Amino acid sequence: MSDEQTPAPEPTGQETVDRVLDGLAGVPDLPLDEQLAEYEQAHHALQAALDGSEQDHRAGLRRVAEGSGLTHVAGEAAADTDGGAGGPSGESA
Length: 93
Fold this sequence. Notes:
Number of helices: 2
Order of helices and strands: HH
Helix content: 40-55%
Structural class: mainly alpha
Strand content: under 5%
Radius of gyration: 22 Å
Largest sheet: none
Region (Disordered): 67-93
């Protein structure tokens, strides 16, 4: 392929991401049909790391919300904690 060496990516501080990026270093030297599989694996690994981060973030938000008396976290469906009485303050429309 190319005679130029691609510089190693700078560490992100995220172990999983850094491991995936390090693993991509030799991909350009692989035959083209093998490159696709390597990039797909990297994509799946990075997506899983991102999904895990999002879940960790939401869990943290839930803990903060519970400590402050809030009933739900933005971006999540609110639990029906008022017995279906209606609006946000329990008033029927």
